Amino acid sequence: MTHTRQKGRAGEDMAVAFLEREGFQVIERNWYYRHKEVDIIAIDGDELVIIEVKSRTAPMLERPEQAVDRKKQRMLVYAADAYARYHHIRSEIRFDVVFIINSAEGKEIRHIRRAFYPLL
Question: What is the mean pLDDT of each run of 10 residues along the chain (120 residues)?
Fold first, then answer.
C-alpha cells in the first residue's frame, strides 16, 4: 500500500470513528460503482448520507468547502443513485464532506453537512 493510500485510509478511519460518535450508522466503506468510489455511506436519522473524506496537511491552499469539485460531485451523485437503486432505498440522500486536517498542533476534523446538492 502506498504512503498516500495509507494516509487516506487513516483519514477514513478517523472519519468513521467521528461519525459513529455523532450517531451515524456507517453501512459501507469504499463502495464501488463501476470505477466510481464512495468513501463512506451512512444513515443519519432518516437520511442516506454519501460522505467524501478529504485529508490535508496544513497549511492548505483550498478551503474545505472547495475540496470536492464539480466532477467529483457528479461522480458521487451517479454512485449514490446506483446505490439507492440497487438497495431499493427511497429515503432522502445527503452529500457530506469530512475534512481531516493534519498540522503540527494535531488533527482537526471538520464535518460539512450538505456540502453540495445534486445538480438538476
Answer: 69 95 97 92 97 82 74 94 94 94 84 88
Q: Can you tell me the distance from the alpha carbon of 93 to that of 113, in angstroms, rounded to the nearest whole number? A: 12
Please, is 40 exposed, middle or buried when counting C-beta atoms within 10 Å of its C-beta (0-12, 13-18, 19+)? buried
Q: Where are the extended beta strands (E) located within 45-91?
A: 47-57
Locate the domains of the chain by residue range.
Answer: 3-112
Query: For position 62, what pLDDT does the model report?
Result: 67
Architecture per CATH, domain 3-112, reads as 3-Layer(aba) Sandwich (3.40)
Most distant CA atoms of the chain, gap in Å: 45
- Long-range Cβ contact pairs of 30-34 (< 8 A, separation 24 or more): 31/79, 31/83, 33/78, 33/79, 33/82, 33/83
Beta-carbon contacts of residue 2 (< 8 Å; ≥ 6 apart): none
